[in-house]
Write a structure and sequence with these properties.
The chain is of the alpha+beta class and about 500 residues long. Helices cover about 40% and strands about 15% of the residues. It is built from 17 helices and 12 strands. The strands form 2 sheets. It has a 6-stranded mixed sheet with strand order 1-2-6-3-5-4, with helices on both faces. A 6-stranded mixed sheet has the order 9-10-8-11-7-12, sandwiched between helices. A hairpin with a 4-residue loop joins strand 4 and strand 5. Helix 1 packs across helix 4, helix 1 crosses helix 7 and helix 9 packs across helix 12. The protein is globular, with a radius of gyration of 24 Å.
């Protein structure tokens, strides 16, 4: 499948209504299912102080509310027989609207889609409903229902302080959402959802000229203001000073762990492929072959899985592969330890730090390198197994100004050496300065245990190999050397 990136200005002489629109990405194919992605250069970083969530609400007001001429129920009724929905991704720096529609309904759908994005109704009842949706996600889905996502998002809040553009959840905060008025949303829409911030992506067996017509229509429908608001500078946050612990106190049965620190590496960086390989070796998402999984789950039966990431990875509880269209200037290295029993929590934390420190000091072996590289070269095409994902990742590659994901990954892995890999690990990964977030019920008791720095011996209900028992002796007394340890009630997060 050929990917073509075209500047819309190339069409200016022929399609003057799209003057000022930014870019278009086309992926022609033969599938009767047409994938459409509409992106705007706006994200959570553009939320005003005190109105965190404004970009999220504005985006949903376009995709999950009515237009000037149609109610939201009218839209749902029209989409239902076409088996189509408009999915919205709100990231730190980009908003993406995605849909897949059969070519038989493409023209009808396009008419409604451009109406949704260009003539939103901003009905107060719709806006109040969407505001409640955002608050319920933060207070119920995150705080109460999902320790995995809670731990990861709490970790991000520790890495990125409130003063940083990344310093709040993509959906905002409870107080920020409550403070947003209808006029705030209208103003944000006019300022940021402009043709100059528009990127159009289309894939599939569309008719000749369709992407240009779509871009032309959208650019004509969108409001265009003379001045574009300046976007904030996204500085690299400082690394943690030592091992700092935040215990999120929550009524839960197990202890979930998230560890991480900022890295100055994204997909435009020459070391990205090396860290992508290291991440896969150490904790490939939903894989039983990764190092941590083998050491914690398989060898010791501590939990059900352990994963590592070098990029923002939301909704990991429900995914096997990272979702596209969350491009970010700044990224973090993070480890997620699936919940363990309270009595084995300290051992699991020690084991994680022990394994991380060991691989940073010693590097990966040639055997580990060869096996992981072979796996990734074969597995990489699954990242773009559908044309929708392929289109999404192609847009991400445009953000990072890099080659298409699979092509770039395979090429970089092919020329990567073990020495270069281990040098990248030593340069970007460390185990000493790291944020640790624990989600636990008895936070004060856990805090006291951590402060005591006493050994945490591991006991088993069945015999273990002598090799594991010998290693356990090293792990149970592994010096964690923790710095600040604080307790944060779950009710205070995202408020």
């Amino acid at each position: 499948m050929k990917t073509t990136i075209l500047k819309l200005s190339l069409f200016f002489l022929f399609l003057s209504p799209i003057a000022g629109a930014q870019e278009m990405l086309t992926m022609p194919g033969e599938s009767p299912l047409i994938d459409i992605r509409i992106q705007f250069e706006v994200g959570a970083i553009d939320d005003p102080k005190g109105k965190e969530g404004l970009t999220y609400l504005t985006a949903l007001a376009l995709s999950e509310a009515g237009t000037e001429n149609r109610s939201y129920q009218d839209l749902l009724s029209a989409f239902y027989p076409w088996a189509v929905t408009v999915d919205t991704t709100v990231g730190k720096e980009m908003v993406t609207f995605a849909a897949t529609v059969h070519q038989d309904h493409l023209d009808e759908f396009t008419k409604i889609l451009t109406e949704m994005l260009g003539s939103p109704g901003f009905d107060p009842k719709d806006l109040e409903r969407l505001k409640d949706k955002g608050k319920n996600y933060l207070t119920q889905d995150l705080r109460q229902n999902n320790d995995e996502e809670l731990g990861k998002e709490a970790l991000y809040l520790q890495i990125y302080p409130n003063s940083h553009p990344y310093g709040h959840h993509n959906f905002g905060t409870v107080s920020g959402l409550e403070s947003i008025t209808d006029q705030d949303i209208r103003s944000h829409y006019r300022s940021y959802f402009q043709p100059k911030r528009l990127i159009v992506g289309v894939a599939g067996g569309y008719s000749e000229g369709y992407p240009e017509r779509l871009a032309q229509t959208l650019a004509a429908e969108l409001a265009s203001e003379s001045e574009l608001p300046a976007r904030p500078t996204i500085a690299q946050p400082p690394s943690p000073d030592g091992r700092r612990v935040t215990i999120v106190e929550k009524d839960t049965r197990s202890v979930a762990m998230s560890l991480g620190f900022p890295i100055d590496v994204n997909r435009s960086h020459p070391d990205w492929a090396a860290l992508f390989l290291f991440r896969s070796f150490f904790g490939e998402h939903r894989s039983s072959n990764s190092h941590l999984y083998q050491r914690l789950r398989e060898a010791r039966g501590l939990n059900y899985g352990d994963y590592a990431y070098i990029e923002y990875f939301p909704n990991g509880m429900y995914l096997t592969k990272p979702e596209p269209n969350y491009p970010r200037t700044r990224q973090i290295f993070q480890i997620w330890i699936r919940p363990v029993q309270p009595e084995t929590a300290l051992f699991a934390l020690r084991a994680t730090l022990y394994e991380l420190e060991k691989v940073v000091k010693n590097g990966m072996t040639q055997e580990q390198f060869d096996a992981t590289r072979s796996f990734l070269k074969k597995n990489a095409p699954l990242l773009v197994a559908s044309s929708s994902r392929d289109l999404g990742y192609a847009l991400d590659s445009k953000f990072y100004d890099s080659d298409p994901l699979v092509k770039r990954l395979r090429a970089d892995l092919e020329k990567l050496t073990l020495e270069e890999l281990n040098e990248a690990i030593r340069k970007h990964i460390q185990a000493d300065d790291i944020e640790i977030v624990l989600v636990a019920k008895d936070a004060e008791s856990l805090r006291k245990e951590l402060m005591a720095q006493k050994p945490s011996p591991m006991e088993y209900n069945s015999p273990k190999p002598e090799e594991i028992l010998r290693e356990d002796k090293l792990i149970e007394s592994f010096p964690m050397e923790l710095g600040e340890i604080r307790i944060v009630p779950v009710s205070t997060l995202f408020r």
